[in-house]
């Protein structure tokens, strides 16, 4: 499917651009530890900061889901599922009046999946995301450093997965001791607009907040625009 290849290729180019930009702004582990020393509250991004997908990209999970759908339904092949999943997320975002969407909203736009099977499909995607999540060692060391130094730790993520799924992913990767999760799918504010950082500032008045993440635009620039110190890992 040519359209699917074009879509995935464009997303791949965006990922490469983000990684190259990240290299330019990335700080050393020691320098980030020094920043943690000066903070009262340490906010950690989740994906590509504390954890990553073992398969590499979200599309790899979509392909596994597509293979499962292909085995169950003769009418849906793997490529159709993957393209449909990517398109459904794009459509859900364009139609949504809030800053973030949920997995339920995405699957509501996947018309090729029978309604009675959507809950099962959502559960399967959640399970695959949990299984695919592995610890990033640099993020883990910085997280443990913040814990040892008695910092208040929060998790801040733009993600369509539910809070319960995120909690299970954190538990699986032995992340404990955090006080709160600021999740865009549940708060309906996002790092992408900066409003999630505004909320963190309001909830932590007079505190020195440090945010640690991997995305230069959302984790670095948007945090700083909202008065939060930030570094790229």
Report how far the terminal alpha carbons are from each other.
Answer: 36 Å
Based on the coordinates given, report the CATH architecture of the largest domain: 3-Layer(aba) Sandwich
Major sheet summary line? 5 strands, parallel
CATH superfamily membership of the largest domain, which one? HAD superfamily/HAD-like
Which topology of the largest domain does CATH recognise? Rossmann fold
Proportion of helical residues: 55-70%
Q: Any idea of the CATH class of the largest domain?
A: Alpha Beta
Which percent band covers the strand fraction?
Answer: 5-15%
Shape: elongated
Query: What's the total number of strands?
Result: 7
- The averaged pLDDT comes out at 91
Succession of helices and strands: HHEEHHHHEHEHEHHEHE
Task: Please identify the structural class as seen in this structure.
Answer: alpha/beta
> Total number of helical segments?
11
Strand order of the largest sheet: 5-4-1-6-7
| Tally of separate domains | 2
Low-confidence stretches: none
Q: Radius of gyration in whole Å, from Cα?
A: 18 Å
């Amino acid at each position: 499917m040519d359209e699917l290849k074009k879509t995935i290729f464009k997303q791949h180019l965006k990922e490469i651009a983000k990684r190259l930009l990240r290299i330019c702004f990335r700080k050393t582990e020691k320098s980030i530890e020094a920043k943690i020393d000066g903070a009262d509250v340490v906010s950690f991004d989740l994906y590509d900061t504390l954890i990553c997908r073992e398969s590499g990209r979200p599309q790899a999970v979509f392909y596994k889901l597509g293979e499962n759908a292909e085995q169950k339904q003769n009418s849906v092949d793997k490529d159709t599922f993957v393209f449909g999943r990517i398109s459904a997320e794009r459509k859900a975002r364009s139609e949504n009046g809030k800053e973030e969407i949920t997995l339920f909203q995405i699957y509501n736009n996947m018309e090729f999946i029978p309604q009675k099977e959507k809950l099962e499909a959502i559960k399967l995607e959640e399970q695959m995301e949990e299984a695919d999540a592995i610890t990033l060692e640099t993020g883990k060391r910085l997280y443990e450093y913040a814990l040892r130094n008695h910092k208040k730790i929060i998790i801040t993520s733009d993600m369509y997965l539910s809070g319960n799924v995120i909690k299970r992913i954190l538990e699986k990767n032995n992340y404990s001791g955090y006080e709160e999760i600021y999740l865009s799918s549940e708060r309906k504010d996002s790092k992408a607009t900066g409003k999630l950082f505004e909320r963190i500032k309001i909830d932590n008045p007079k505190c020195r907040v440090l945010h640690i993440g991997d995305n230069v635009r959302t984790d670095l620039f948007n945090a700083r625009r909202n008065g939060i110190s930030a570094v790229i890992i």
